Backbone:
């Protein structure tokens, strides 16, 4: 096993553990003129912008669902719990985007991903408050709680990836 790094003005290749013969690449990243190709295990991801991050698309879609769900709360909750959960759910997506914008500074990127994770926990708390204090669709709430649990795990894994692998 060994490590390999190659670079030019237009592209760079960084690969982690590899074995000549069977070619087992533990991780590999190819950057070409602002576009990044990551190979980890068996999957291939092309990351051109924050929109290509799974945690971004998942958090964005969930924030839209939360927004719509919160508008069905009683009128007196639209500006109380409804407002809180809308802000925390959208804060996840905003933190991911802002962190990605600072990705050249690894510590800043991680800091904003941690903010996203904290907002994910806050959103889960508000969902539990709504579940315990209001008559709402139990199926939708269960779905949202489960999805935010998954999102939190994915954000945490991405934080670990950035901490270990991000250059």
Residues:
């Amino acid at each position: 096993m060994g490590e390999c790094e190659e670079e030019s003005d237009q592209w760079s290749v960084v690969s982690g553990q590899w074995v000549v013969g069977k070619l087992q690449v533990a991780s590999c990243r190819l950057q070409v003129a602002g576009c990044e190709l990551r190979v980890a295990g068996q999957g291939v991801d092309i990351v051109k912008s924050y929109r290509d991050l799974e945690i971004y698309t998942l958090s964005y879609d969930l924030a839209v669902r939360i927004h719509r769900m919160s508008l069905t709360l009683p009128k007196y909750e639209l500006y109380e719990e409804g407002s809180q959960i809308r802000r925390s759910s959208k804060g996840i997506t905003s933190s991911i985007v802002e962190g990605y914008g600072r990705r050249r500074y690894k510590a800043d990127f991680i800091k904003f991903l941690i903010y996203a994770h904290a907002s994910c926990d806050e959103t889960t708390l508000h969902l539990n408050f709504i579940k315990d204090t209001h008559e709402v669709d139990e199926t939708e709430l269960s779905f949202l709680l489960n999805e935010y649990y998954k999102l939190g795990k994915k954000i945490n894994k991405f934080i670990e990836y950035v901490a270990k692998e991000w250059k």
User: Anything to note?
Assistant: The CA atoms of residues 151 and 157 lie 10 Å apart. Residues 6-25, 30-35 have pLDDT under 50 and may be disordered. The beta strands are 2-7, 11-18, 27-32, 35-40, 43-47.
